[in-house]
Amino acid sequence: xxxxxxxxxxxxxxxxxxxxxxxxxxxxxxxxxxxxxxxxxxxxxxxxxxxxxxxxxxxxxxxxxxxxxxxxxxxxxxxxxxxxxxxxxxxxxxxxxxxxxxxxxxxxxxxxxxxxxxxxxxxxxxxxxxxxxxxxxxxxxxxxxxxxxxxxxxxxxxxxxxxxxxxxxxxxxxxxxxxxx
Length: 181
Hints:
The protein has about 180 residues and is an alpha+beta fold. Helix content is about 20%, strand content about 20%.
């Protein structure tokens, strides 16, 4: 019986180690975005956008994103969040300089929302449902979903061209993986 239990324990450990959602590759540069339907794991890209990644981590550690809605969700395009007012006009109050790169906007790419000024990104970000090459080189890419896109796909969609959502889904919590025990 003892050998059977040791074997089962060893198998369980191997499964956990092999599961990308169970163990972050780089916990300091991984986010756990918890939604009502499940956990989304985001690999942050400080190599592409060091200032944006640092700010997102700072805000996550302040629990800034907890309870914030996905105010703009366009089916087949993206889900946008990060505005504490829920209107699409708010932010944390700290604009960031653009950190554009050659990284393409693909399914699961996480980028910063901004106004017309390239240096106006703040706390709002979006996750792409599908490739969006028209954004390439014009918006800052700072992350990539590595697991849980099926939960992003379930975020309540908005209506019309604006994609504004009535009774929107919320972020349950957003944490840096290194801080999760």
